[in-house]
Write a structure and sequence with these properties.
Helix content is 37%, strand content 15%. It has helices at residues 6-11, 39-61, 78-83, and strands at residues 17-23, 26-32.
């Protein structure tokens, strides 16, 4: 970007920022994007959120750590409930 004129630098696409906030009874994912999101962007974000939910489920259900020592405990349907609010679904294995 250093070789571009100033007008081109300000017009170029920028990165979005994601913040995951964990509360006692839930979590929130906030995304800031300086550009209006396209459908492709929204679909990519949805797939990333599914990956985050996969990781959270792994943390909450791992057998390597006893339940009383886990940092994250989830209700039985917490992950599936969260998935139902996401725009797209990940591909299902055949």
């Amino acid at each position: 970007m250093l070789g571009l004129p100033p007008k081109m630098r300000t017009a170029s696409a920028c990165c979005s920022t994601k913040v995951i906030t964990i509360f006692d009874r839930g979590l929130a994912v906030t995304t800031t994007n300086p550009n209006p999101p396209t459908l492709e962007y929204k679909l990519q974000e949805a797939l990333k959120l599914h990956k985050v939910l996969d990781e959270l489920q792994d943390l909450a259900t791992t057998t390597e750590i006893s339940p009383e020592k886990r940092l994250l405990l989830l209700d039985d349907n917490a992950i599936e409930s969260a998935r139902s609010h996401i725009l797209a679904r990940p591909p299902q294995p055949s």
